[in-house]
Amino acid sequence: MNEATKPFEPERLVPALLGLNTDCTWWIAFSGGADSTALLHALAVLREKIPAKLHALHIDHAIHPESHEWSIHCQALCLEMDIPLHVERVKVQRDTGKGLEAEARRLRYLAAEKLMRPGDLLLTAHQADDQAETVVLNLMRGSGVDGLSGMPTSRPVGKGTLVRLLLEFTGASLRAYLRSRNVPWIEDCSNQDLDYDRNFVRHALLPQLEQRWPGARRNLTRSAGHCREAREFISFSCDQFLHPARLASGCLDLATLQASTKEAGSFRGLGLVLRQWLRVEGASNIPRARLREFLRQLRSSGQDAHLKTAWDGWVLQRHRNTLWLQRQDTIHPCPQIVWTSTQALDLGAGLGRLSVEGPPPLPEWDLRVSARHGGERIASLERGRHQSVKQIFQNRKIPPWLRPSIPLIWLDNRVVAVAGLALASDFRDELRKRNLRLCWKPDDPALKTAIEYLDLGEG
Question: Which residue in 54, 216, 307, 369 could disulfide with 209, CB within 3.0 to 4.6 Å?
């Protein structure tokens, strides 16, 4: 008997659950539909065997007129099962050009990422029927091996990991489980609307395929498994090229990558390697046309050309011969703030904290912090000469889009430090005399890379 035809029982999840990290929060993606209700109920039943902290997450898309009532239903069911529920309301834009389904899915994952702490798990109720539908939809989009592999059992999401526990079970087996225990679930009438691509595949196309070729769903998931095996081998091969070229999180040495082997130097092979890099970094799939155009520009432009492409909240840029991958709008210019050096200073999202660290008592300097506006200079380490802040950024190969986020520290109306990069000679001497350190600890990975990993020397 095929795995997907066996009845669903919570105990069948135990082997997979025991392999997961329990020293974190497990967020159960709970829509109130049959699949997620079965997952929620099963985890509640297994709670004594799995010592993890369970929380449910319900996303109210405010698309359906009954969405508020669905939230109330989810709250009541979670209360009955003694599982804390977080309800997040999002506003789905209909004019993004991506389609309502895709935009709603994007917002769901963004909402989950904001809640998840490092190491947390997001447990979703995707099941075998969803897998078959995904393969068909990706086939119709002309997807390659990645898309035809279907949904993986796990993947990075935000600071944690998304885990799909139900891919072995059909929707029918999950609903049978709920009926046998009198557990209610929500039936969304929009799931019958054939204007949505997934609904058309589910209710119109796959039944015809099953009628003509019995077991079509099962065979689709089997083909997805074969493609996953091929993708794993491709991923392994690409990793051999990526390893020597990775500078840090979100930062790749393009020259090293191209020179590592003749195959990696070909731009067709480079596309496969870059897709693997994006996957490892947790980025969403870049559209094929975007990647192809970016590779074309890499091939035809000089090393000094700044290249940029963006998709689904991610941006990929080339500065000199380094590739940078970032979330869009994750960091902002450094604010202008008055800072008393005895207290640590929070600079805001992505920018982290500034502090003077050392033995007490700390000096009560009245400092000012700001972004660079142009023309600033700092006393250099040699013979009282001054160096422009712009030159410091250029020497350290700091990408232009990161420069406004790097704090300048002012004392007595002159720049005494470019955080993480340079100190005025007299200010450096004063810190050493007092056994003090000026520390900047940015939160954003790109800023960390910029001040910790980039090469010194003229760029």
Answer: 216
Question: How far is the C-alpha of 64 from the C-alpha of 31, rounded, in Å?
Answer: 13
CATH of residue 25: 3.40.50.620
100: amino acid identity, one letter = L
Of 31, 201, 191, the closest CA to residue 126 belongs to 31
Measured CA to CA, the distance from residue 445 to residue 201 in angstroms comes to 40
Residues of the chain predicted below pLDDT 70:
1-5, 95-98, 261-268, 380-384, 453-459
Other CB atoms within 10 A of residue 368 CB: 15
Task: Report the alpha-carbon distance of residue 84 to residue 28 in Å, rounded.
Answer: 10
> pTM for the whole thing?
0.70
Cα torsion angle, 60, 66, 68, 72, sign:
negative
pLDDT in tens, 340-388: 999 999 998 889 999 999 998 999 999 999 999 989 999 865 555 788 9
Looking at the DSSP assignment, which residues form a beta bridge with residue 422? 418
CATH code where residue 236 lies:
1.20.59.20
End-to-end alpha carbon distance in the chain: 64
**218 located within any domain:** no
Task: Quote the CA–CA distance of 175 and 178 in Å, as a whole number.
Answer: 5
- Check whether residue 299 and residue 363 sit in a common domain: no
DSSP at 201: I
From CA 351, how far away is CA 448, in angstroms rounded?
10
Task: Tell me if the bond preceding 335 is cis, omega within 30° of 0.
Answer: no
Token code pair at residue 215: 């077991």
Q: How is residue 140 written in tokens? A: 């119709």
**CA-CA distance, 16 to 8, in Å (whole number)?**
14
Q: Which two tokens stand for residue 178?
A: 């709920």
Residues 314 and 434 in one domain: no
Residue-range definition of the domain harbouring residue 253: 231-327
What is the C-alpha to C-alpha distance for residues 217 and 279, in angstroms, rounded to an integer?
Answer: 27
Apex 93 CA angle, 88 and 97, nearest 5:
135
Question: Are 54 and 139 in a shared domain?
Answer: yes
**What are the φ/ψ torsions at residue 26 (nearest 5 degrees)?**
-100, 115
Query: Does 380 share its domain with 414?
Result: yes
pLDDT digits (tens, 9 = 90+) for 265-288: 455 678 888 999 998 888 888 988
- Within this chain, do residues 201 and 263 fall inside the same structural domain, yes or no? no
Q: How far apart are CA 155 and CA 161, in angstroms?
A: 6
Q: Which residues of 113-151 are buried (b: 16+ CB within 10 A; e: fewer)?
A: bebbeeebbbbbbbbbbbbbbbbbbbeeeebebbbbbbb
Number of structural domains (the chain) is 3
